[in-house]
């Protein structure tokens, strides 16, 4: 086996269940296996699970990459959950509640639940950690989040990247850090779960805005302005929800926003570019078969902001364009016509 710098020599291999064999679930399973964990990857579709077990390839998401031996795939959630120290959740944010409802009784009381998701539940406006707590009854010491500039399409090449592993219990964050630390993947711990989740969810909305600007043919001044003001409104919301302001200057804030807004691999930014080029929401959805979380979460983020009395003009504009059919050029004009104000508000 190739050495990717993890804890492969460790005689007791950490058992990890990864739920969701989509792009990030598959790539993160590879990271964990490279770090020396014994990984069981749950997938919905038997043909994908069979392909992973027989050819070590996930044909739907990464047909050109051979996955490490430390991964076993299964459609049996009970088998995946059995004896897992960590249950990593990598399904779309809006389906988490239903998925978790089916898995909760299978999980051990000590298993730490790890969210890879970057969204806010529509209707409830709950963060993913809050959905996990509500559905499973787990306390904050058993709920963790992994976030940061982590495009699965780059990580599957084992290109160097850093991330944040956040848990209110720092000792648990350190255990998770050890479980996913490899020569190419560098996790930093944080105890600010809310800040990391807000950073991850809102960057998808700002990614849509930057994509829309790109699709309109606007240049780097416009995109940098959206990124910076987008980060300002992200931090405003986070602070209102009790987050640590420093988180937004870190990997789960600025880091993830820059990766998303600048990358052709980002589904949110690509989705926005399609809208900016004049495609409708329905046309764009019909040509996109991947999870672009910001499309739904822009509404939940907008609702969350209104509930906390926080101004999020870029997010409001994205909702108006994506769901209200507002012409993107009109939304840009209106954003620019807002009353003048000091930068640090
Ligand atoms: N792909 C990335 O680069 C990346 C990186 C960091 C975080 N994330 C986040 O990880 C989460 C998962 O994203 P992804 O990229 O793996 O998405 P994906 O669309 O590639 O995969 C989602 C997986 O969930 C499964 N699934 C289980 N139950 C489902 C249901 N009821 N409906 C639909 N699908 C269901 C799908 O079969 C699929 O395998 C998102 O919140 C995303 O923002 C993704
Ligand atoms: O493809 P996106 O836009 O969902 O972004 C993927 C990751 O969240 C980037 O960190």
From TrEMBL:
Stored SUPFAM superfamilies: 6-phosphogluconate dehydrogenase C-terminal domain-like, NAD(P)-binding Rossmann-fold domains
Pfam families, per the entry: NAD_Gly3P_dh_C (PF07479), NAD_Gly3P_dh_N (PF01210)
Gene Ontology molecular function, alphabetical: glycerol-3-phosphate dehydrogenase (NAD+) activity; glycerol-3-phosphate dehydrogenase (NADP+) activity; NAD binding
Active site: 203 (proton acceptor)
Binding-site positions, NAD(+): 20-25, 152, 267
Subcellular location as annotated: Cytoplasm
Keyword Ion transport: no
Gene Ontology terms: cellular component: cytosol
GO biological process, one term: phospholipid biosynthetic process
Pathway: Membrane lipid metabolism; glycerophospholipid metabolism
Transmembrane annotation, as ranges: none
Residues engaged in binding substrate: 118, 267-268
Catalyzed reaction equations: sn-glycerol 3-phosphate + NAD(+) = dihydroxyacetone phosphate + NADH + H(+); sn-glycerol 3-phosphate + NADP(+) = dihydroxyacetone phosphate + NADPH + H(+)
Cited InterPro entries: 6-PGluconate_DH-like_C_sf (IPR008927), 6PGD_dom2 (IPR013328), G3P_DH_NAD-dep (IPR006168), G3P_DH_NAD-dep_C (IPR006109), G3P_DH_NAD-dep_N (IPR011128), NAD(P)-bd_dom_sf (IPR036291)
Residues at which NADPH binds: 23-24, 44-45, 61, 118, 152, 267, 293
Domain Glycerol-3-phosphate dehydrogenase NAD-dependent C-terminal: from-to ranges: 192-332
Keywords from the named record: Cytoplasm, Lipid biosynthesis, Lipid metabolism, NAD, NADP, Nucleotide-binding, Oxidoreductase, Phospholipid biosynthesis, Phospholipid metabolism
Function summary: Catalyzes the reduction of the glycolytic intermediate dihydroxyacetone phosphate (DHAP) to sn-glycerol 3-phosphate (G3P), the key precursor for phospholipid synthesis.
Family that this chain belongs to: Belongs to the NAD-dependent glycerol-3-phosphate dehydrogenase family.
The protein's name in its UniProt record: Glycerol-3-phosphate dehydrogenase [NAD(P)+]
